[in-house]
């Protein structure tokens, strides 16, 4: 299984920003973005 950083590098900036908007709209904290993304994508 690849690391989360490796997974992020496979996504372009627009996709990354869309994920950031998704967590913030869902009430997530900025500092919890990586934890949220790791849990969502099980990376």
The rounded Rg comes to 10 Å
The fraction of residues assigned to DSSP E strands is: under 5%
Q: How do the SSEs run, as a string of H and E?
A: HHH
Total E-strand runs:
0
End-to-end distance, in Å? 7 Å
> Total helix count?
3
The chain-level structural class is mainly alpha
Give unreliable regions as ranges. Answer: none
What does this molecule look like?
With 43 residues, the chain is mostly helical. It has one domain (4-41). The protein is built from three helices and no strands. The chain has helices at 4-9, 13-25, 33-41. Keywords: Plasmid.
Question: In brief, what are we looking at here?
Answer:
By secondary structure, the protein is mainly α. 65% of the residues lie in helices and 0% in strands.
For the structure shown, list the relevant keywords.
single chain, 43 residues, mainly alpha, 3 helices, plasmid
Question: What's the helix and strand layout?
Answer:
Blueprint: H1 4-9, H2 13-25, H3 33-41
């Amino acid at each position: 299984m690849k690391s989360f950083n490796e997974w992020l590098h496979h996504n372009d900036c627009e996709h990354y920003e869309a994920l950031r908007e998704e967590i913030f709209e869902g009430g997530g904290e900025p500092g919890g973005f990586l934890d949220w993304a790791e849990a969502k994508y099980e990376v």
